[in-house]
Amino acid sequence: MKKTIQNNLSLLPKHVAIIMDGNGRWAKKNKLKVALGHRTGVISLREIIRESNNLGIKSLSIYAFSTENWKRSTIEVSALMDLLSEFFTKDIDELNDENVKVLIIGDVEGMPEPQRTILKNSMALTQNNTGMILNVALNYGGRSELIRAAKLIAENYKNGEISLDDVDEDYLANMLYTKGQLDVDLLIRTSGEMRLSNFLLYQCAYAEFVFPKVLWPDFTVEEYHKALLEYMSRDRRFGGRNTDE
Ligand code: IPE
Ligand code: IPE
Ligand code: MG
Prior knowledge:
By secondary structure, this protein is of the alpha/beta class. It has a single domain, classed as 3-Layer(aba) Sandwich (Undecaprenyl pyrophosphate synthetase). It is 40% helix and 13% strand. It is built from 7 helices and 6 strands. A 6-stranded parallel sheet has the order 3-4-2-1-5-6, with helices on both faces. Helix 1 crosses helix 2 and helix 3 packs parallel to helix 4. The longest helix has 24 residues. The mean pLDDT is 97. The structure holds 3-methylbut-3-enyl trihydrogen diphosphate (2 copies) and magnesium ion. The site of one 3-methylbut-3-enyl trihydrogen diphosphate has 10 residues, from helix 1.
């Protein structure tokens, strides 16, 4: 029987991470301003969030703005910040109704106003929700996240709260923004680029990578299903051997 998502729901990834890439190229291809590429990308994002929730994905992590993205022009950065406020203002009630818990991963304190307040309010509103966790990476860098974790651990050690033997993989994982969540099972990066660009370095240790060629604004639920099916066909060994080998 042909493998479909519906008859193999148990094989779905529990944690999906997405690097939403290609908005700029999409705008260029369509002779539009880059801001319109980002705006169209938000339409894809809404659909993918909804579908992930429908499928019962436990955690969806999306890369929305990296610590390196500040290097872009003031016009592009402010267009992105405006879109961010618009998204969280318009969509937060629906996300809340869907029982989605929004977690901003990254340096929220380093975000400008009014975005900082809007983001904090979105987290506060949804903090007790028990459905899908939506990790939105903003002002996020994987290395900064690890440095932050190292400092937290050093602090706990210095205060005598832990001994060196307490620091193991789980302990470090619990010092990350994604504390309490499972590792990334599937990482999708659109637009054909094949790199992590500093995203979820620790959490992706054993992730399966899928790189659809389509640009993010063209990424549909159908494309998402293709990536999920590709994941479901992979043989994950985690360094061991599966029994039939
Ligand atoms: C990804 O699209 C969105 C963000 C980085 C916010 P890009 O803007 O990087 O699109 P390309 O890579 O220039 O096509
Ligand atoms: C990664 O994409 C960041 C986001 C999607 C938010 P970039 O387009 O910024 O990454 P590079 O520069 O191609 O590595
Ligand atoms: Mg890019």
